[in-house]
Amino acid sequence: MAPHKKIALLGSTGSIGTQTLDIIAEYPDLFSVEVLIAGSNVDLLIQQAIKHKPKYAIIANENLFSQLRDALAPLGINVATGKKAICDAMALDSIDVVVTAAVGYSGLEPTISAIKAGKRIALANKETLVVAGELITSLLKDSASTIIPVDSEHSAIYQCLVGEDPKSIKKLIITASGGPFRNKTLKEIEQVTVADALKHPNWSMGAKITIDSATMLNKAFEIIEARWLFNIDADKIEAIVHPQSIIHSMVEFVDNSVKAQLGLPDMHLPIRYALGDATRLTTTAPALTLADYATLTFEKPNTEKFPCLNLAYEALKSKGNTACIINAANEIAVAAFLKQQISFLDIYKIIEKSIANIPFIKSPTFEDYVNTNTETRAYAESIIK
Ligand code: NDP
Ligand code: MG
After folding, report:
1. Contacts 24+ apart (CB under 8 A), 141-147
2. pTM > 0.70: yes or no
């Protein structure tokens, strides 16, 4: 195992962020926190900084800066706020690993900054690859930076591919829990509430990804994420519903052999693997007891009930800024659903309308992505009103 690593944690106050801090605390000889970055939860950020003693603590929301400064500057912690400070922190010489655990589009620019600085990235923020997978892939080609996935499915695939020739891959099989509405009829799904949608059967996650799991757009995003991470054509990536979430994903090879990675549905596992630089760190955390899971089942996803799943193939076929439009429309729609301004099925309708109405750009530049994101959000807001 490599020497001690200093970590910059983007999105420290969220579900993945707090679990990343658990792993850092589990291996004090291997990891320490150099930079903590949060969006708006200044109280938790202050608590985390007092405990983990980073060199820098940054809050994205500028209105909360004075509170952060008053609490942490007297302790000798450097404090900052705003997008530029976040992007600069991703590129600090003292950082060995960046963990991108911010939610949504907000992860894009900091991730680009980390890539340009040649950092090793443990990537949880899948939206970065959804929004701008092609751009990110080309930036990685010109950089010493590498990405290890934190998303459990992609961590599973990464683990299945160790020692394999990429040319021998026949397909990637991404497992999906099916979300809380797997057994509901379309009529019943029409009526679901925010509380119903937030009850994920297997995983405890942030609100946005939990809603994405209920619509299955999360699985569409993961297909797009896999396309870019593993450089595989969309027609070689499929999703299969596996309600127990024990098999985290599989790879089928040209000789028809299928490899799978299993474990409890606990994000500490893929975070531990990514921070450990794709090595196996010994742990005393609860392990999988297969006898507790007498049956592991599989079924085809139902795209009539969950049309969002098809958006992955639509986006990967049309390319350009389509996935960026889908992501931006979804972020606005999910926020509106959480505020009970729209119904669950409206989320898909808002995404479809946005794809139809926002101008298609075949070969987007970085600025095009920024503009597409801004325009789509404004458009989605306007149709919600
Ligand atoms: P949460 O909603 O729990 O946390 C999001 C984090 O992002 C918070 O720390 C939040 O800060 C921070 N944040 C929000 N806006 C900004 C901003 N503008 N700049 C910097 N930080 C910001 O999300 P999750 O932890 O669930 O998910 C994080 C990412 O990981 C997502 O991309 C998700 O798809 C992915 N992921 C999550 C999994 C999970 O199990 N949770 C599994 C696989 C992938 P604050 O709270 O202080 O406002
Ligand atoms: Mg996942």
Report:
1. 143/115, 143/116, 143/118, 144/118, 145/114, 145/115, 145/116, 145/117, 145/118, 145/119, 145/120, 145/121, 146/120, 146/121, 147/121, 147/123, 147/229
2. yes
